[in-house]
Amino acid sequence: ANNGKNPKSANKTDVRWLISVFITTFVLSIVFSFISTNSITKLSIFPAILILLLVVLIGIVFDIIGVATTVANEHEFHARASKRISGSKTSVKLIRNSAKVANFCADIVGDICGVLSGAISALIAIKITEKLNMYNKTRQEKEKAIFNQAISMIENEEKEKNTKVLAAENWHHG
User: Fold this and answer.
1) Per-residue pLDDT tens over the stretch 8-21
2) Planar angle of CA 118, 21, 38, nearest 5 degrees
């Protein structure tokens, strides 16, 4: 499992990797969360949805990279590297470090994007709710004005009529 390396050296490398992954995940989570929540709250709904789609797309791409490195066959990329095909040497390096690449891409970036997309979705839902609430308040104010106008019309009409039909040009059809 340690490829002929000293077990203590391999253990130190694993501990360093674990600490670096922890710190990277923590810092990225804080930075992305801070930027997204502060920027999303100041945007209208459409740009916020575009940012949500971008975050989801980034998560998907990094998940694809993480899975691809774990299932790729290194021998095929050696053949491509011998033909000097662009990107083949990088591909071999990624495949040789597939556990770390998959951990970073799928577990760190992919999971952060998943959590971030949930937070952005919640902020978008709040924005939509606030907008609908504003429309509802406007409707209630118009309805109250129509009601008061109708009461005023009834009070100013003749008292002998049994049936009253009220209408005004600025009233909503409903």
Assistant:
1) 666 777 788 778 88
2) 35
